[in-house]
TrEMBL record:
Gene3D superfamilies: 3.10.450.50
InterPro entries per the UniProt record, alphabetical: NTF2-like_dom_sf, SEC_C_motif, YchJ-like_M
Source organism (scientific name): Colwellia hornerae
Domain YchJ-like middle NTF2-like: 27-138
Lineage: Bacteria, Pseudomonadati, Pseudomonadota, Gammaproteobacteria, Alteromonadales
Protein name as annotated: SecC motif-containing protein
Length: 169
C-alpha cells in the first residue's frame, strides 16, 4: 500500500516506520505526515503519544480512536514547513508563553466524515520534548464541506482523476 501521506513510497518504508517507533521523526513535517497516516490507519496510540505533553492532557485515546474510525482521510497536501533547523531546542521548548518561535507546518487535507466531504486547512505548531518532535497545537483556518462531484466528473482534489477513481472510491 502506498503511504497515506502522499509521499509516493510504500507505507512500510514511510510513515509506518515512525508509527511502529522504529524511527523518530527528523522534522516537524515528518511528524505531521506520520500523524496524518496514523489517523488514516487508526493508529490512535501513536497520535496520542506524539502530542506535546500539555496537549496530550486534553486528549484521550478513546476519543482519538472514535474520530479516526468515523473519518476517512483522502488526501494530504503540505503547503509550507518552516526550516526547523533554525529552531534550536531552547526556542522550540513550549513554556506556555507566546509560541511564535515554534516551527510550523501548513497543510490541507481532504476527508470524509459521516458521508460528507470536507477540506480543512491547518497551521500546526511543534515542539521538542525529550529530544523528540511533538505536535503542540493547530490553528484551523478553513474547514468547509464540499459538494461531491458525479462519479465520472473530475475529483475536487485536483488529482486530474475522475471522482470515482480518486476520493470517491
Ligand atoms: Zn508517509
Ligand atoms: Zn481526489
Amino acid at each position: 500500500m502506498q503511504c497515506p501521506c502522499g509521499s509516493s513510497i510504500s507505507f512500510q518504508q514511510c510513515c509506518l516506520l515512525l508509527i511502529n517507533q522504529d524511527n523518530n521523526a527528523q522534522s516537524p513535517e515528518q511528524l505531521m505526515r506520520s500523524r496524518y497516516s496514523a489517523y488514516a490507519t487508526e493508529a490512535a496510540d501513536y497520535i496520542y503519544q506524539t502530542y506535546a505533553q500539555a496537549s496530550r492532557a486534553l486528549q484521550t485515546i478513546a476519543d482519538i480512536s472514535a474520530w479516526a474510525k468515523e473519518t476517512k482521510w483522502l488526501k494530504l497536501t503540505i503547503h509550507a514547513a518552516s526550516d526547523h533547523t533554525k529552531h534550536n531546542n531552547q526556542t522550540a521548548v513550549s513554556d506556555g508563553n507566546k509560541e511564535h518561535n515554534l516551527p510550523t507546518v501548513c497543510f490541507s487535507a481532504y476527508y470524509q466524515h459521516q458521508g460528507e466531504y470536507f477540506l480543512m486547512k491547518e497551521t500546526s505548531r511543534f515542539v521538542v520534548e525529550k529530544g523528540q518532535w511533538r505536535y503542540l497545537e493547530g490553528e484551523v483556518s478553513n474547514n468547509e464541506a464540499l459538494i461531491a462531484p458525479k462519479r465520472n466528473q473530475a475529483c475536487f482534489c485536483d488529482s486530474n482523476k475522475k471522482f470515482k477513481q480518486c476520493c470517491g472510491r
